[in-house]
Amino acid sequence: MKISEIGEFGLINRISKDTIVNPKNILLGIGDDCAAYYTSTDKIVLATCDMLVENIHFTLSTCSPRQLGKKAIAVNISDIAAMGGIPRQALLSLGSSSDTSVEFIDQLADGMKEEAKLFEVNIVGGDTVRSPLGLVINVTLIGEVEPELIVRRSTAKPGDLIMVTGELGGSAAGLSLLLEEKKYSSVPLNIAEEVKSAHLSPTPRIKEGRIIARERLANSMIDISDGLASDLIRICEASTVGAKVYASKIPILSAAKEVGRLIKKDPLDLALYGGEDYELLFTVSPKEADNIIKLLKKELNAKVSVIGEIREEKEGIKLENLQGKVVDLQPKGYNHFRR
């Protein structure tokens, strides 16, 4: 059997079996946005890592080394945000060819340091190796959260409302332009720059995640890295529930709508399946929805939208499309090993 037959998440499920040999102090292992373990009575450690591989996650023709460095840190910080935590220390592993210029690495490191400084994260160590097949960046991030505030993806409840921060689709629209810039040269410059920035320079929602955790408002939460559809399905599978999402309620970035129109890509598809928006997707009891909307508006001037509800598992995971037809929500987000 080949990896392509089981896909990325099937592979993760296989690897995750029997990985905890000493369960003392372990709260969560493989299967959530972060691992979690106790080191003291008042904090839980959060640990996460993300690897970026040249020509899989990025191409050097479409991003600067500084942008790449910032994003390498940001995508990890987003995982900490998804659990209501605070990022603290980072470890960097870097694989590069011997021919890479020192100036390139300097700029890459500058981007990492810039993003880390924004969130008061120390880069405390790591590793460097020669990589003859391209640039590889792996960041391991350690954070912490109070035991009573940690938010998991496995605790959604039937009756919860499904909510999302910000607006979606910008990153996927930006990636489309970056990959085929000449083909889509008709896109106005200001709109093109907005969606490219959404892809190249995502903003981790640490502040939003901390407020949601601090007020104990969410029953479950995840960050949108592989697409709204895929990441909602992860919550549902982890929580053993179903869901219904309303296409008409999904907040799509205006610039992404305009790009979709110009390049003939459905903006709804960009929002549902594009990925790398790094917004927070979470579920709350209906009585708390207005509180979250008002609180995030007041403290951060942040937008939050209700896009659906959690249902019993037997009802499946559904999408009511723009024509009012209810269909199965397909997990068509990014998957490394699916053909």
Note down, in words, how this protein is organized.
The chain has 339 residues and is α+β, with helices and mostly antiparallel strands. It has two domains: 3-145, 60s Ribosomal Protein L30, Chain: A (2-Layer Sandwich); 161-328, Phosphoribosyl-aminoimidazole Synthetase, Chain A, domain 2, CATH 3.90.650.10. Helices cover 36% and strands 24% of the residues. It is built from ten helices and 13 strands. It has helices spanning 3-16, 65-81, 102-118, 170-179, 189-200, 206-214, 228-239, 254-263, 267-273, 286-300, and strands at 26-28, 35-38, 44-53, 86-96, 122-130, 136-145, 161-165, 218-223, 242-246, 280-284, 304-311, 317-320, 326-328. It is globular, with a radius of gyration of 20 Å.
List the keywords.
339 residues; alpha+beta; Phosphoribosyl-aminoimidazole Synthetase, Chain A, domain 2; 10 helices
Mean pLDDT: 92
Helicity range: 25-40%
Shape: globular
Class by helix and strand content?
alpha+beta
Q: What is the total domain count?
A: 2
CATH architecture group name of the largest domain: Alpha-Beta Complex
| Largest sheet strand order | 8-10-7-11-9-12-13
Oligomeric status of the shown chains? single chain
> Count the helices. How many?
10
What is the CATH topology assignment of the largest domain?
Phosphoribosyl-aminoimidazole Synthetase, Chain A, domain 2
Radius of gyration: 20 Å
What is the highest CATH level, the class of the largest domain? Alpha Beta
Précis, in short:
This protein is of the alpha+beta class and 339 residues long.
